[in-house]
Amino acid sequence: MKYIDEYRNVELARKLVDEIHRVTTRPWALMEVCGGQTHTLVKQGIDEALPAGVRMIHGPGCPVCVTPLEQIDKALAIAARPDVIFTSYGDMLRVPGSTTDLLSLKARGADVRIVYSPLDAVRIAVANPDRQVVFFAIGFETTAPANAMAVWQAARLGLDNFSVLVSHVLVPPAMRAILESPTNQVQAFLAAGHVCAVMGWTEYEPIAARYHVPIVVTGFEPLDLLEGILMAIRQLEEGRAVVENQYARAVKREGNRQAQETVFRVFDVGDRKWRGIGMIASSGYHLRPEFARFDAETRFDVGTITTAEHPACIAGEILQGTKTPLDCTAYGVLCSPRKPLGAPMVSSEGVCSAYHAAGRGLAAPTAVPLYELTRREP
Amino acid sequence: MCLGIPGKVVEIRDDGPLRMARVDFGGVRKEACLAYVPEVVLGDYVIVHVGFAISQLDEEEAMKTLEMLRAIDAEGVAMELGSMGDDSTAGPPAAPPPQLPGAV
Q1: Does residue B29 contact residue B10 with C-beta atoms inside 8 Å?
Q2: Radius of gyration for chain A, computed over Cα atoms and rounded to the nearest angstrom
Q3: Which of B8, B51, B98 sits opposite A119 (nearest CB)?
Q4: Strands B45-49, B52-56: parallel, antiparallel or unpaired by DSSP?
Q5: Which of A84, A97, A162, A323 is the most buried (most CB within 10 A)?
Q6: What are the residues of chain B with a beta carbon less than 8 Å away from any beta carbon of chain A?
Q7: Range B28-48 burial, b when 16+ CB lie within 10 A, else e
Q8: Where are the domains of chain A?
Q9: CA dist., res. B37 & res. B25, Å (int)
Q10: How far apart are CA A270 and CA A127, in angstroms?
Q11: How close B35 comes to chain A (CA, Å)?
Q12: How far is the C-alpha of A97 from the C-alpha of A69, rounded, in Å?
């Protein structure tokens, strides 16, 4: 496929690995923000092919993983109502709430439907005027334009049986929170390419300057990641700290203005709680007052929600990059993609699921990387 | 979730106020909304995320990136050759390679 195959070229990947080894003179710790990037890194063994001492810390960029437990429990309470058709991206269905998950609820008779696009949820609402249709609007900046358009369309169509349970989070406040943590080890970031396709990278420039941290907007294919890592290490080695764009074929400095306009017509920035991390100021979107009638949290009284995480799950520390799945006693034993204890084992972008899919720390490897990138040290 | 897949726009139609497309992803065709990429025409490549095209792919930038990647080896070789001190080697003058601390 065009724009994919050429970025998976094994020979060029080897050249990039060699170049990374050539320019690296000391240990560095880089964070890839997005869970999609984590999966490519781990699946292809890219993190293991880097020079000794160069470490990839996996970031919190898995929207499913950071959706707070309260919101999952609210979703479960709303989805259990007989008058509701609950619609969601497929990733959310197996995420464990305090007592159950959406898929189990569906098996017990709740009308829970997976949608490919939020516009599908609007269509379901149009086709079922006697039912309440609720869409679980989660995601980072990448997903916000689609979710905003669903609300915009529902308003345009005058739908009174459509609402959204919003749990939108934003990348730059999370990066700041990581950099300000006393335990921070991150020295450079690979910023999430598709978040930047929507938002551009101007909001990262003050972060790079204030914290003196290189930020490289990076794509998702193996060559993108290797080049992003190379660009970040070059900056670190040269003592520079600016925003650079590796993913130039898809990202412009100003981002996608049309998408931003619709997002800001529908959403306001406000505080958000992140699962495993806690409250981060101004780190998410909420519906603007003129769209408050589409807010599922006010439309449905779900009573008091008391949450309970599984005691063995260390997802919070993994999401903050202070631990890896290999530090978890439940990983691969009590917790697996078939029987997940925490969201990072469920989501296709979760760190635990990436490690498990690659067979890391498991007795029997489950996958073989596409590349043999590991370089023989002289 | 932020997974975005590049695909080719093979059909465009209007669905009420929304411009919609069929996008071909290596043989699999899916519907995508073009509201956020109004300049896109048939045959263009877009990145699609949850049913919305969020970016048009820039062929020129894509070529530049690949050319840069292909050039890395040439640069690396020039540096290595430069470090061997052979002045008869054709090619641009190369800076000395950085020394690894503690390297022997």
Answers
A1: yes
A2: 21
A3: B51
A4: antiparallel
A5: A162
A6: 1-4, 6, 8, 17-18, 25-26, 30-31, 33, 35-38, 45, 47, 49-52, 54-55, 57-59, 61-62, 64-66, 69-70, 72-73, 76, 79, 97-101
A7: eeebbbbbbbeebeeebbbbb
A8: 1-308
A9: 18
A10: 33
A11: 8
A12: 6
| pTM of the complete model | 0.89
CB contact under 8 A, B50 and A23: no
Neighbours of A308 (CB within 10 A): 10
Residue A63 has pLDDT above 70, yes or no: yes
CB-nearest partner of A12 from B17, B57, B70: B70
Q: Which value does ipTM take for this structure? A: 0.92
SS3 content of chain A, % helix, strand, coil (to 5): 40, 20, 40
Q: Which fold has domain A1-308?
A: Rossmann fold (3.40.50)
Cα distance between residue A168 and residue A378, in whole Å:
48
Fold adopted by B5-57: SH3 type barrels. (2.30.30)
Structure tokens at A240: 């520079």
Name the DSSP class of A290: G
Alpha-carbon span A273 to A278, nearest angstrom: 5
Structure tokens at A61: 């960029």
At residue B54, what is the residue type?
A: I
Q: Has residue B102 got a pLDDT over 50? A: no
pLDDT in tens, A208-249: 999 999 999 999 999 999 999 999 999 999 999 999 999 999
Residue pLDDT, tens place only, B62-93: 888 888 888 876 555 454 444 444 444 344 44
